[in-house]
Amino acid sequence: MTNRWKSIGLAALLAGLTLSTSYAEAAGVLTIGRREDSTTFDPIKTAQNIDNWVFSNVYDVLIRVDKTGTKLEPGLAESWTASDDGLTYTFKIRDAKFSDGSPLTAEDAAFSLLRIRDDAASLWSDSYKVIDTAVATDAHTLTIKLKNPSAPFLSTLALPNASVISKKGMESLGADAYAEKPIASGAFTVEEWRRGDRIILKKNPNFWQADRVKLDGVEWISVPDDNTRMLNVQAGELDAAIFVPFSRVEELKKDPNLNVDIDASTREDHLLINHAHGALGKKEVRQALDLAIDKKAIVDTVTFGQGTVANSYIPKGALYYFADNLQRPYDPAKAKEMLAAAGASDLTLNYLVRAGDEVDEQTAVLVQQQLQKAGITANLQKVDPSQEWDMTVAGDYDLSVNYWTNDILDPDQKTTFVLGHDSNNNYSTNYKNEAVKELVAKARLELDPKKRQEMYVDLQKMAKDDVNWIDLYYSPYINVTRKNIENFYQNPLGRFFLEDTVKN
Prior knowledge:
By secondary structure, the protein is α+β, with helices and mostly antiparallel strands. The protein is 31% helix and 24% strand. The chain is built from 18 helices and 21 strands. The strands form 5 sheets. Strands 1, 10, 11, 12, 13, 14, 15, 16, 17, 18 and 19 form an 11-stranded mixed sheet that branches. A hairpin with a 3-residue loop joins strand 10 (188-194) and strand 11 (198-203). The two termini are 32 Å apart.
């Protein structure tokens, strides 16, 4: 999912200059530099990697995705069975505790799933409406009955946003307080959240796999500027940093004190288009925009060859990816003709850019130049990363580059969120196609893999024809660590396995 945010402010800038004063220099505390601060620890209220990548090690889920990112494995549910008709699932909940020492039970699991389904603030309700009932038949047995068979159901239980939270804690503290300092079910607890600066995690001694955890704690530190963040790692002021700029990879590889980790990903970068704004509501105009952008030039110039041109919203290598999906050629002359025919000549657009994000800024300049050749003026509006997502959600943009990483193995999650969803205006693009929305719902119910694949091929074709957004490129995760850090790993779905990380 996306990687967006809220307030960063002066504290984050100071953090980039004074990291060496952090008490995290103590042995066993891993410091990780990232661009943005988190927004919440309430799992149902976010769709952002900056949140999920942190609370995936604060919360645990019933079923996990393994390190390879290709299969499901037991989490808080140590085993499960399904009825022959595919409507009833029974989960055996392992003997586990929350960070406050209270028992983690099937009732907590049922509460968490019904909350993500029913709470008005949930961004993920559509994916869980298939649940008819979720009942704790005893402390260690969860029985879920579905309204109809669902192909992606087990995969959705591995979504970080479906993490198991404490029913008693949520009801006594309230959602706002819980979102600030949650009761953990995972490897780490939230010791302190210094807004705009850092999140301080400590090892959770009550975690059911506490013996597996090698670190004493983790600090996620906001350093918005990419180059500052890299310099902090090189200077030893950070143990690790994520979002390594493509331009710095070869240089950092030559530093004998560092490891550059390039891990397979499900990341896809794309150009969001606000369909609710004037001429952008016309399919022909969006198709012209697609023709006016040279994706290969972006891959070569911005990613330094680390990326590959994207032709679908489903990432290359993921389930049901359609390799032969349409890839419009770069043709600014034809784009100009199409715009004229659609009555959209001399189009002027507002393009949101995240200030300090090297890749975003480089991409914006390239796209601006390319669009100009088709007679389109793109005014670049550089904003603090803390503002950019809020402006996107509010619809205060025409164009904006974003990215998505899959959180579950099944394509239903991303497809629902960007093509067949209402509550988030289809990823804030305001894309609407009732036929597409209907097919998204049908694909979720289809249990025959061959028929389901055909549905997703059709969805990829329809999305490309409509230009729900403009697919740009696929790329790996690129992170950097000091040589004394071992097992700093991110699986293709983006989860960091900090339970296994070692600081020597």
